[in-house]
Queue: 4 jobs
Job 1
Amino acid sequence: MSSSKKLTSESTFLYQYPLEELSNEVKTLIERAKEASYQAYAPYSGFRVGAALLLDNGEILKANNQENVSFPVGMCAERILLGYAHANFPNAVPKKLAIAANRSADANSQATVSPCGMCRQTINEYENKFGQAIEIYMLGPNEQVFFAPGIDALLPLSLMISTHECFLSRQ
Ligand SMILES: [Zn+2]
């Protein structure tokens, strides 16, 4: 094992901000995510997630989770949103993604949520396609916002398929 190397990522971290300190643009995006969460279809878990995406053309799109009686069929808000965005605006670059969740329609029941593994991989896909990081804002309780400057912060050493390079070459 003398030739082994420890491969690490230094990009895994989050910032935490009070909502009030963020820009009006981000506050608006988070508000859209909250609105979307109230309209989520989550009759089985009661866990409603909303997501809002700002594109570089100024468009703000939103979506929410859609559950199914056959549980694996259900889809996360983030994947529905990113798929819709790319289906309808294939040349628009996703810039900022906001996510909010609650366990009831009560505005005070804000839950902390971060994207699941499949959604992280989906975000990674569109970052790679456009060659630009997508800022991710996750609203938590007490008007606190967790911020990741890009998917690297949530998905270090992510999957890349290449015969000529490995993830280390991205750094
Ligand atoms: Zn997900």
Note: The pocket of zinc ion is lined by residues 76, 78-79, 115-116, 118-119 (CB under 6 Å).
Job 2
Amino acid sequence: MGESSTRRLTCLVCPIGCELRATVRGQEIVSLEGHECPRGEAYASQELFDPRRVLTTTVRLCSSEVPRLPVKTSEAVPRERLRAGVQAARELRIEPPVRRGDVLMRDVAGTGADLVATRSVGDNGGASSESPKSRRTPRSENHAQAS
Ligand code: SF4
């Protein structure tokens, strides 16, 4: 068996924010202190061995009035994939109108999560009859059209 180490975490599952103290050996928590409910155990395990975050960023809009659209992933993604997700979002050019909740990209950077709009833009924020996916324009296509 390998050496054990102590890790301190703040549980973010609920506003209480318990301060957790985990003794870890390999890929196992051998003891946990400070949690007031079982959700703290699940949180510590996830955070220590498979940390995930919801990616929030912006994508470019083909609009002079509103140049950027705030977006986020539909679920938390592995932390090591965040940079790749931001890069993928950077490649997008979205044509308004966009409705809050529209899926702009599926399976962002191979995470299984979708990239969704968190704001409505255009048509007074109303619905679009056009598929959001069909409005997705990778940068390479943009360059091809521009030349
Ligand atoms: S351990 Fe339970 S009570 Fe404490 S912050 Fe996490 S979810 Fe809340």
Note: The CA atoms of residues 64 and 96 lie 11 Å apart.
Job 3
Amino acid sequence: MKLVIEPVRSKRRSVIEITSDIYPKLAQILEDNYHSRKVLLIIDQTVFAIYDKEISQPFAESSLQQTFFKIPGGEATKSVDYLLKGYKKLIENNFSRDDLIIAIGGGTVGDLAGYLASTYQRGISYIQVPTTLLAQIDSSVGGKTAINYQNKKNVIGSIYHPDQVLIDLKFLETLTNRDFNSGLGELIKYALLDNNFYHLLNKSCAEIIKRNDFNQQLLSEVIYQALRIKNNYVRFDQDDFGKRRMLNLGHTLGHALESYTDFKDYRHGEGVIIGIVFAAYISLKENRLSSTKFDEILSLIKKFNFDFNLPKKLDVSKIIELMKSDKKVRSGKINFILLKDIGEPFVTDQLTEEKISDYLEDLKCLKLV
Ligand SMILES: NC(=O)c1ccc[n+]([C@@H]2O[C@H](COP(=O)([O-])OP(=O)(O)OC[C@H]3O[C@@H](n4cnc5c(N)ncnc54)[C@H](O)[C@@H]3O)[C@@H](O)[C@H]2O)c1
């Protein structure tokens, strides 16, 4: 399955392909488009340990000069430290603007590699090979790249599209359940942004969460639909000032929870799910979402077995401070994406800090499971 993302105001376009034969495909792309160039392979160490032989194969047969940069997956990798190590590799190996970076890993490796690619010599080409569910349905496309700094999530970043995104479902077989579920968090977000996708996910969740016997066809369709929805939001608003902001559903609280725990306690998708429940709860309390729809949303999330209760000890004032320092803040106001209905998100900056704080206190006491 192939999807071409052409953001309206950008010269760069991404070709996204879901394939079951990634290595010959990659070899072909390298030979056709990047013949005799240098390639920096930024690869998740865990992924390399599992897929070492297969991954090395297309490069062994190509005319490219390769340099490996193996890094750990996880939030700590999205750091100035690893960014500087990346520049060092590029400079020491004399990379120039017509060379190439390939990111093979989850969203953290992809975000770091994308930012490195966008800033080295004002931008060199890169290819994403996402190996987690979250990266396959979300982070590898749309061009957002970022690192964290001073405990602030994605505070340094750019919008820079990869030339190609190659998605192979085989990588998902070796993900831990926790990392697979984290991807489901973002998948549920897409379901709440698109009514048709909501019905598809609702109908097929039992099949999707079966880990030992993937339904490849269904999962390909689900990934394709998620990317199609993302594309619809990104295409006309790649700079993230309008429609694209709806993709931040669940992220105002999600990012704050990640920062609150020094990126240690929550996977990205786990924070997003709690954030989605909070956004739905605010929507209900502000009389924008009916109680029937609120229950429907909770029931979908429950089907995926998420724990979405807030910790009782959560310091709400600290969470508010973190939300205020998030890059989604405009004119000093905290922004939330709320829901009028499934498939009808909207943005608001009209909630006072007192209200947000009260709703967070409510959610701490409510046992929703
Ligand atoms: N750029 C964007 O538009 C965008 C969108 C959503 C999320 N994100 C970012 O994505 C990041 C989260 O990405 P993630 O969930 O992929 O986390 P991750 O990159 O940390 O990967 C999760 C874990 O899975 C391991 N792993 C990766 N592939 C594997 C495989 N095939 N088999 C076994 N283990 C594997 C990694 O080593 C890591 O331990 C966050 O930093 C988030 O901010 C970015």
Note: The first strand starts at residue 2 and ends at 5.
Job 4
Amino acid sequence: MDAEPRKISRSKNVLKARWNRRAYFIRRKIKRSQFLIYKRLMKLTLFLLLLAASLATIGQNQAKNLPSDAAAEQAVIASGDIVDCANLSGSEATAQLLDKIPGTILTLGDSVYPDGSGTNFSDCYARTWGRHRARTRPAVGNHEYHTPGAAGYFNYFGEAAGEPGRGYYSFNLGAWHVIALNSQCSDVGGCQKGSPEEQWLRSDLQQNSSKCILAYWHSPRFSSGDEHGNDPSMKPFWEDLYAAGADIVLNGHDHDYERFAPQDSDGAADPEKGIREFVVGTGGKNQRGFHKALPTTEARSNKTFGVLKLSLHPGSYAWEFIPVPGQTHLNCYRQARGVEIEMGIWRIP
Ligand SMILES: [Fe+2]
Ligand SMILES: [Zn+2]
């Protein structure tokens, strides 16, 4: 009678042991699969950490290659027809504007009157605009050539004026390529197609065609000033600049301020590919009159001395004519808060 229950309890024990063993294997399987999951999670975490680290490094390297904010915007301040040795008051007033505006100064020729002798540079120019010589990139005018070879000019400005005796050179400002030209054609072998200066300009433009381009020199291709007006001998420079997609031309010579709509080398308005010219002969010498405005004249004034400030960005520029204090009476300009101002922004198409 006893044998049966014992048999049953033995088989119960066997079943229990089997179950325990199975449970053990199941637990082991779970543990192993948990371990595998952990292992995979660890691998994934490590991979994500490495990915984040490498992306950060790439980002840093790219940031190094991008121009900084400072390089992205470049300030340029320009004017020509500046220092009169017989009366420094005009150029002293415009020099006081420069004192407050940081940036590269471009002189647009006729830096000192009555002529560009060494003495006039050291005794007159040096007393007003000369205090900003270290940040000035000059262009040469006709009054500098009253001294043979413009020797006073080249001696005074040194390396900042490019190769001595040539009067044309170029440099970069952020995303912009800036070209100084010499409009005293007869002193440098002519300005016609194939002349040394025109050949130099074409090859300089070929090497820098990807950039925004600003060119500056003394005698304007276009001007409604009654003393000089249009200078057709500048047309070859305009053709080369237009073909290269240049954006801005700055000139002096006529003692006034004039802004043109973008136009081609024949003076036809061309908002897509045209070049915008500014005449800024307002450095401090004196003012002169106007003829009838040209079809592309957008604004002009002969009421005040002042400087043109340009903010050059990659792909756009802003301009502002800054008159000397107390002389805000400009004609043809729009009004803001009762003061007539001349400023604008142009996005390069
Ligand atoms: Fe002048
Ligand atoms: Zn001149």
Note: Residues 81, 110, 253, 255 surround fe (ii) ion (ligand 1) (CB under 6 Å).
